[in-house]
Specification:
By secondary structure, this protein is mostly helical. Helices cover 61% and strands 0% of the residues. It has one domain. The radius of gyration is 14 Å and the shape is elongated. The model has no long low-confidence stretch (mean pLDDT 85).
Length: 70
């Protein structure tokens, strides 16, 4: 969600897919995508966002370490 809020059009998930494929084949990949989808939905609901278009920078909560890097 953070990458999308910062302006990303796409977020690559290549490594997790390869790991899931290596461990459980197609079923592993399907489970991994389902889990990521559920986690994104939970994060969106936690921020009061109900669709991808509503994700904005102002919805991100930064930690102290991240603020120092900005």
């Amino acid at each position: 969600m953070k990458a999308l809020a910062l302006g990303a059009d796409i977020v690559w998930i290549g490594r997790p897919i390869l790991w899931a494929l290596a461990c459980e084949g197609q079923t592993g990949v399907e489970n991994m995508i389902r889990i990521l989808n559920e986690e994104l939905k939970e994060a969106m609901l936690s921020c009061g966002v109900y669709c991808l278009e509503d994700i904005k920078k102002k919805k991100i909560i930064y930690s102290k370490n991240e603020i120092a890097k900005l």
